[in-house]
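Chapter summary example.
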Amino acid sequence: MKIIGITGPSGAGKGYFCSLLKHPGIFVIDTDAVYRSITSGYGECMRRIEERFGGKVVNADGSLNRKELADIVFNDRGKLALLNDITHPLISKECREIINKKREEGYAAILLDAPLLFEAGLEKICDTVICVIADKEVRKKRIILRDKISERDAEIRIENQHSNDYYSSRADITVTNNEGEIETQAKKILEILTEHYRR
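The structure predicted for these 199 residues follows.
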């Protein structure tokens, strides 16, 4: 089974790109969904987050108060790094367990949709890394529409992320997703991947 890492900055369109690569025998792991899962109740991850960030970030049902935490970490790089130190190992562990399960089920490939692929060290388990990038203004508009936040909040999120060059310099394949053409790029990549996995 091959593992394909999909990464890039927020608003670049990684999720949409992964949807274009869906194919029988290919399973998509969304690390954002994994993060939501491990913070949906008061388990190991939430205990560690509460210890470092206080009770305000915990809802009454033990789940994560995402807005409260976002207000803290997206205005302080040090605290964002602290959050990542807590969550990355737990997300990585969960992803590895899913990969092992899907390998046993006979999947030919895994698409690992991970915005923080390099930061979490998950690129080490990937056979190929594809980054999806887009211009800053395009990403900002998408983030505002997707998350229903202000322009300034969207800018803060972008400022706290790496540049496009950070991703493209580390990836095997770079896909640019501004206006159009991503479907064509995805089709070509899917043809290459499926041909490679038939060997």
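To summarize the output: The radius of gyration is 17 Å.
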